[in-house]
């Protein structure tokens, strides 16, 4: 009888149904990226990383041949995509990754999910950081991973992952979302950089972040807040430009050096701009050391329906499982409210 009672109790106790869920993978057939594996970490609260990253992954897989694994912050019980949940199964995919694309915000993952990220950084793997990745982690001081926190005070890893890897941590908004868009002005001395081939006038719908990246960073474009929501809007009064796109390198545990590309924009709506999207595709090639393969005409067309929502806290499409994005034609993201 006791065994029956214990079994019934066990069946009633919630457990992480998503712990061993199948990851979303887009597998390219042929192209420059064939044989290279990119892992995308989508886990911010506001800017719809769960839309932006699978859209990028599809382009890079279908048009360029990369294998792209997209991981999401999910509800540990339902497995539904849940922005900012601090639960992201599948990070062991980083064990054989050639590039990590980070679009996280204030995450504090369980040890088993955080350790593969740390291992990847310690081996000096290339990194792309988008928007809130500057403040990807918010980790208590008692944690073994505390040094990755965006406000970490220790001199050996001051300001955490954002500052030490990407080149900058959270430094504040610089332009009001949905009222001030952002023009990215390419620095004249960097117009021939491989990442900027074919990129003319990148523009982002998201407002700016203030940034003063590490001195060893190479700024490619300054972010100029605009007074309104069109690319031809006048500069916002009193808002001088500041760095918005840069590259650098960081050093892993044993001296291995990894390339880094950072942009302080990157909301899902920002990808609708062809120049901004091209810059991200080019940056993927560059971080992987494939800059000699970058041309001004690399394919950047979306693959399948892309229908980003207006970004906001709590504004994500509800009830979506990662594998509902499987294949080339599934909408990003499905809108279950219409069903």
From TrEMBL:
User: Could you tell me which InterPro entries the record lists for this protein?
Assistant: Class_I_gatase-like, ThuA-like
Q: Which Pfam families match?
A: ThuA
Transmembrane residues, as ranges? none
Please state every residue range assigned to the domain named ThuA-like.
49-287
Renumbered to this chain, the signal peptide range is 1-21
SUPFAM superfamilies the UniProt entry points to = Class I glutamine amidotransferase-like
Keyword tags: Signal
Would the keyword Zinc be found if you checked this record's keyword annotation?
A: no
Domain of life, per lineage:
Bacteria
Instruction: Give the protein's recorded name.
Output: Trehalose utilization
Native source organism of the sequence: Blastopirellula retiformator
């Amino acid at each position: 009888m006791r065994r029956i009672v214990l079994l019934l109790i066990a069946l009633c106790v919630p457990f992480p149904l998503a712990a061993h869920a199948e990851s979303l993978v887009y597998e390219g057939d042929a192209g420059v990226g064939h044989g290279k594996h990119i892992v995308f970490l989508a886990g911010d609260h506001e800017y719809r990383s769960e839309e932006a990253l699978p859209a990028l992954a599809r382009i890079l897989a279908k048009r360029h041949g990369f294998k792209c694994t997209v991981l999401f912050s999910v509800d540990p019980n339902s497995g539904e995509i849940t922005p900012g949940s601090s639960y992201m199964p599948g990070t062991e995919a980083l064990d054989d990754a050639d590039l990590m694309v980070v679009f996280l915000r204030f995450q504090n993952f369980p040890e088993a999910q955080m350790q593969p990220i740390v291992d990847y950084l310690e081996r000096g793997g290339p990194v792309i950081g988008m928007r809130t990745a500057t403040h990807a982690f918010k980790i208590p001081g008692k944690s073994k991973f505390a040094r990755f926190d965006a406000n970490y005070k220790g001199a050996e890893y001051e300001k955490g992952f954002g500052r030490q890897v990407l080149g900058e941590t959270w430094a504040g908004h610089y332009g009001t979302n949905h009222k001030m868009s952002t023009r990215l002005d390419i620095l004249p001395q960097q117009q021939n950089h491989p990442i900027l081939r074919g990129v003319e006038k990148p523009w982002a719908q998201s407002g700016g972040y203030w940034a003063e990246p590490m001195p060893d960073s190479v700024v490619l474009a300054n972010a100029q807040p605009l007074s309104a929501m069109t690319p031809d809007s006048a500069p916002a009064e009193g808002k001088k430009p500041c760095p918005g796109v840069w590259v650098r390198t960081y050093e892993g545990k044993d001296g291995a050096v990894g390339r880094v590309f950072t942009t302080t924009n990157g909301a899902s709506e920002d990808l609708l701009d062809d120049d901004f999207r091209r810059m991200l595709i080019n940056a993927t090639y560059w971080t992987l050391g494939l800059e000699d393969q970058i041309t001004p005409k690399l394919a950047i067309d979306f693959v399948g329906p892309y229908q980003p929502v207006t970004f906001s806290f709590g504004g994500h499409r509800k009830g979506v499982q990662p594998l509902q994005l499987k294949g080339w034609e599934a909408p990003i993201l499905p809108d279950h409210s219409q069903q």
